[in-house]
Structures are given as structure tokens and as C-alpha cells.
């Protein structure tokens, strides 16, 4: 079972044994825009969901706090997201980057989500401490062709996505709202013309009320070619 550890603003450390990992998809708050995005993806051969928003179970060991992500080929990329983490006494909010296999995505979104990790930040906020101003929290992603992400590829706020409380209700309906459940939010639009197949990724959430930020950063390492 995967163990994660998060530092809260007051210095408290929260340890979590991940039992369920879930990736939300097509989770924009404006579902008309979501449908337009589905149509765009269909032109690229990516199969559309049977319903929106979607939720994909992912192997729990793919919830990771790492600085390197190992992939099998060059067509993989991250996605700027937030993550909901249920602990014994709190619900935490942190930053995440859902690394996705784009070659596999055309065969099945759920399959592509299980091909690479969901990389989570090492710091988190208590959801109750930011709930009243969630929509003001920014969500940004950067990519880089070297080890340093230096080009902005995603720039939005949590207002663009369905809320943590929405997903907590979904988890409750499915009997999954218990300690050890981690849900990744789904992502926001990428900037056109920026190469997402990058060497490095960084995602950051910033709270304008407190001035605090959460971030996660990693480099992508391509594994050696297989024999056979």
C-alpha cells in the first residue's frame, strides 16, 4: 500500500495509506465547454466518455510523491490538477500533476491513466481552511525542455473545475469517502502552441488570501528500449 506524507501550514504532518485513487475527467464546471473539448479529442482519435463528468479508478500505488517519472516513450505529458486526500480526521487539498500516456489514450482514457503516476505535492491545506475562497486559488502549470520548467502551459483557477465538495458527495454515494481515498480533480485548458511533451513539469496552486503556495515538480525520464 502506498504511503503519502503531507506537511500542513502549522507544521503538522499527516500520513496517509492510499486505499483508493480516483481520477476525475471532463470535470470542468462549464459542461458546454467540456462537450466542445470532447469533440476536439474525438478528432484526434480519443474515445469520448459515456457520461460527464467521468471518474476513473486508478491503481493506488500510482499516487506518488517523486521528483522523477519514468515513461516508455516520448508522447506522455502531465496535467495541472488539485488532489483531495481523506485522512483520519481531515480532508486535505494539495496540488497534483496527472502524468498521462497520450499514445495509450486513443485506446482508452482509463488505460492511459494507469500507465503513469499521479504526482502529488508534499504540502497541503485543510479543505475547511480554504473552502470559502476556493475559486480564488490559482492553478498553473509549466513545462521545460530541460530540467527546469520555464514555459507556462496552463493558467487558470479552481473556479474552472467542479468543486471538492461536489466530489465528496460522489464519493459518499459510492461508499468511498473514508480515510485513504485520494481523488485527482481533472485538468484545465492547455495553451495552444506549447509543446506538452516536455522534459520537465511543474504545477503550482497559490492562495491569494494567505499568500501561500503549494507546488510539485518533476523531470520525465524515458526508459531504455526493450529487447524482444
UniProtKB/TrEMBL annotation:
InterPro entries in alphabetical order: DUF2848
Family matches, as Pfam families: DUF2848
Superkingdom in the source lineage: Bacteria
Name the record gives this protein: DUF2848 domain-containing protein
Organism: Pseudarthrobacter enclensis
